[in-house]
Amino acid sequence: MQNNDPLEVWLRGPLPEIPDLLQPVAHALLQASEELAIFQNTFPTRLLWEKPAGIASVGFHLQHLAGVLDRLFTYAREESLSESQIAYLKSEGTEPFEGCTYHNLLDHFGQQLQGALQQLRNTDPTTLTQIRYVGRAMIPSTHLGLLFHAAEHTQRHVGQLLVTARILVSGYPPQES
What we know:
Layout: H1 23-36, H2 58-76, H3 83-91, H4 102-121, E1 131-134, E2 139-142, H5 143-170
Antiparallel strand pairs: 1-2
Helix pairs in contact: 1-4, 1-5, 2-4, 2-5
């Protein structure tokens, strides 16, 4: 029996122009994008901000995915967060504009992803063990640690989003009137 499902991104081979040591980061981010696309044209807007059993909404996860990539890649460049990045962080979980859809939020994530991939292409591998600081508390990490965490954190939230979305789309638990 032949499986017609495409291979996961990491099994498709090296990505052009991405340094060897950063291939896993790029693979994980691209895999996340592909998995998020499953609902791009089908997720009901009316469910985007629902929190079944009090868990985070699908909308929150999509906003958070874009925000985390932006913030962690900013720290990886040895930069501090801007006021707009801090404002975005504080707004995660609220509808950014009336009628916002899954597709709108997915497009924003896609823009952040493209910027992250470009930054990976431009990363000098000799800097990967250098110290980078996180947040106002200046918690030390490494350049590679930040990039790896961005990929790992993205994958974690994609998993949570997909489970929440499937629960909501299935109609369970029943929505209160």
